[in-house]
């Protein structure tokens, strides 16, 4: 019967550290390649060159990119997050101003109460508002 006694604790810790380093390495590859393709100031040939360098000489390529463009990576990520936040804020403001589906149904109900539309038209407007 084989038990875990053949695999000492320090070997387990060493294996966990190697696995952790392996995961971090692939995370760095993903971050660098996603930053390369996100950049607008880099030409297609520049992107291809960085990709070839990262794939052919992975350690040198990733570390060279981090050293030469590390600060720009943080600035691009910050500006992308701010742009996404402002788009979300604008969307929330536009929905809140228009009232969304509830505002449309309320307007249709007031038109129905005034007699400007029929019950069938109100039901149609209500269905459209809820579908949107």
Summarize the structure.
This protein has 132 residues and is mainly alpha-helical. It is 85% helix and 0% strand.
What general outline do the C-alpha atoms trace?
elongated
Mean pLDDT: 88
Main β sheet profile: none
Which value, in Å, is the CA radius of gyration? Answer: 28 Å
What structural category arises from helix and sheet content?
mainly alpha
| Helix proportion range | over 70%
Total helical segments: 5
Intertermini distance: 65 Å
Give the strand content: under 5%
Low-confidence stretches: none
Question: Got a strand count?
Answer: 0
What's the arrangement of secondary structure elements?
Elements: H1 9-38, H2 44-56, H3 58-98, H4 100-114, H5 119-131
Helix pairs in contact: 1-2, 1-3, 2-3, 4-5
Describe the structure.
The protein has 132 residues and is mostly helical. The protein has a domain of 68 residues. The chain contains five helices and no strands. Helix 1 packs antiparallel against helix 2 and helix 1 packs across helix 3.
Summarize this structure as a short list of keywords or feature phrases.
mainly alpha; 132 residues; 85% helix
């Amino acid at each position: 019967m084989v038990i875990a006694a053949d695999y000492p604790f320090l070997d387990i810790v060493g294996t966990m550290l190697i696995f952790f380093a392996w995961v971090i390495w692939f995370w760095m590859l993903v971050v660098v390649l996603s930053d390369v393709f996100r950049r607008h100031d880099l030409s297609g040939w520049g992107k291809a060159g960085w990709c070839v360098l990262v794939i052919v000489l992975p350690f040198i390529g990733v570390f060279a990119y981090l050293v030469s463009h590390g600060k720009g990576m943080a600035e691009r990520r910050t500006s992308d997050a701010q742009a996404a936040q402002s788009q979300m804020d604008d969307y929330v403001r536009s929905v809140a101003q228009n009232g969304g589906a509830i505002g449309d149904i309320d307007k249709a109900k007031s038109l129905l109460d005034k007699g400007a539309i029929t019950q069938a038209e109100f039901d149609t407007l209500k269905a459209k508002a809820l579908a949107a």
